[in-house]
Amino acid sequence: MLKSYLGNKLKLQYPFSTILNTFLFRVIKKNDGIIFMLHRVATFDKEGLLPNENMKVSPEFLCQLILKYKKRGVFFASLDDVYLHQTKVKKIPCPFVCFTLDDGYLDNYEIAYPIFKEHNVPFAIYLTSGFPNHTAILWWYIIEELILKHKKIQLSSGEILDCLDKEAKTQSFLRLRHKIISFGAQDLASKLRILLSNYELDLYSKVKELSMSWDQVKQISQDSLCTIGGHSVNHPAFNTLTKEQMSFEVRQNKQEIEDYTKKDVSHFAYPYGSKYEVGEREFEMMKDFGFDTITLAYGGGISKKNNRFTALPRLFLENSL
C-alpha cells in the first residue's frame, strides 16, 4: 500500500490554487454535484507530451482535493448513489462528488486505490477489458515514444510531421491522434503498421507495462469502495462502429468483467466520450444494454435536469485546476 500522504508534506509542498477554490466549488454550487473523470494518478514526466501528461493528476493533488472537500462537508458518492439520487429513489447529501477513472491503468491500483482507501472515499474504474487482457493498443503512448525519438516523422503517404521541438511534437501528436481515432477498432494494428510503415512498432509493450492485471481487478473489486464499470473491449470511438460492432464492444466487455469479478456491471463510460465520438445514435443504441448509468467525457456538473442516463455529464479533472 502507498504510504500516507497526510502530514507536513501535504501542508508545505502542494498549496491549492485560487482557481481550484473558485472554479470547482462554483461548479458544485450550481449543481447537485460532480462526476469527476480521471485516467491516471501518477507523478509527471517532464519529457512527456502534454496530451498524455494531462491524463494524470498527482497523488498529492488528489489527497489535497479530498481533504478540501472533507473540510467543506462535500459528500463522496458512488455511481450507485448518483443513480439512486437521480432517479429519486434515494436522496443523498448535496453537494456530492463522485470519482471515476477510465481505462484500467496500473497506477489506479498501486497509487489511487490506497489514497481512496485511506480516506474512505468510493470510486469507480471504467475498465477497458483489453487492458488486463493485454490486447488493447495504447497507441497514444506508442506514437508519443516515436515522436520523442525523432526530429520528424514520415508517414506512409509521404506526409512529414515536424518534431523539432516540444510544441511541434505536440502538434504532430494531435494530428496523428485525429487520424488514428478515425480508424475505429477493426484492424487497428494493421492500419497503424501501414500508417507508420517506416518504423518498427511494438504495439503491445505499453499495455503490458501500464495496465492492471485481472488478478488486481478482481482484488480491487472486492472492496465495497470500488465499482468496476464497463468501457469497451478495444477502446474505439463508438461513432466509427456499426451497430453490431458496438454491441460486441459493450456486451463482451461486460461479460468479461462479470466473469472475473463475479459482480454485475451496472455502469458504463463511452471510450473517448466527447461530442466528436458519441451522439444521438449512440445514446439511443446504448438503451438496449440495461446499464443504470452511462457517462460522457464532458458536460460539467450533475443536476436534477440530468435524467438522460445514457448521457450523464462528467467533469475532466486536471491537475492544473
Please, could you describe this protein's structure?
β10, α14 and β11 form a beta-alpha-beta unit. α8 packs antiparallel against α9. The chain has 14 helices and twelve strands. The chain is α/β, with parallel strands linked by helices and 321 residues long. Helix content is 43%, strand content 16%.
| SSE series | HHEEHEHEHEHEHHEEHHHHEHEHEE
Average the pLDDT over all residues and give the rounded result.
91
Low-confidence stretches: 1-19
Portion in helices: 40-55%
- Give a quick account of the main beta sheet: strands, pairing sense, barrel closure: 8 strands, parallel
Provide a brief overview of the structure.
With 321 residues, the protein is an alpha/beta fold. It contains 14 helices and twelve strands. Helices cover 43% and strands 16% of the residues.
Blueprint (SSEs and pairs):
Layout: H1 8-13, H2 18-30, E1 33-38, E2 40-41, H3 50-53, E3 56-57, H4 59-72, E4 75-76, H5 79-86, E5 96-103, H6 106-119, E6 123-127, H7 130-133, H8 139-149, E7 152-154, E8 160-162, H9 166-181, H10 188-195, H11 205-210, H12 214-221, E9 226-230, H13 243-261, E10 267-269, H14 280-285, E11 293-299, E12 312-316
Parallel strand pairs: 1-5, 1-12, 2-3, 4-5, 5-6, 6-9, 10-11, 11-12
Antiparallel strand pairs: 7-8
Describe this protein with a few key phrases.
alpha/beta; globular; disordered N terminus; 12 strands; 14 helices; 321 residues; eight-stranded parallel sheet
